[in-house]
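Reviewer 2 asked us to include a model.

Predict the structure of this chain.
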Amino acid sequence: MPHRRDLQLAALIKSKIAEYCQLNSLLSDITILNVTMQDKKNAIIHYVPIQSTLEYESLVALQKKLDSTIPQIRHYVAQETNMRAIPQIRFSPSLENLSP
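Predicted model (structure tokens):
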């Protein structure tokens, strides 16, 4: 069972990443589903692509694009919050919502 502080950090990070996605048109093709904290230093962002039918190559390209924006996202979260340390961020696609 996650600690209360982990849930608060996850909610804060989710809201700030959602703000960043709205500000940055490059990330307008995903929807953030959930954020889970592995520990205080690592956050996993669960997302689903807006397009319901995506080929494997498109999903890989989207994942690479998201991975390349992680430093900018961490910088934005650091500027917008008063957290002592910004956790490392990983994006994880939620594939069960995609149709084959």
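Residues 11 and 28 are 20 Å apart (CA to CA). The longest helix spans residues 4-23. We have added this to the supplementary material.
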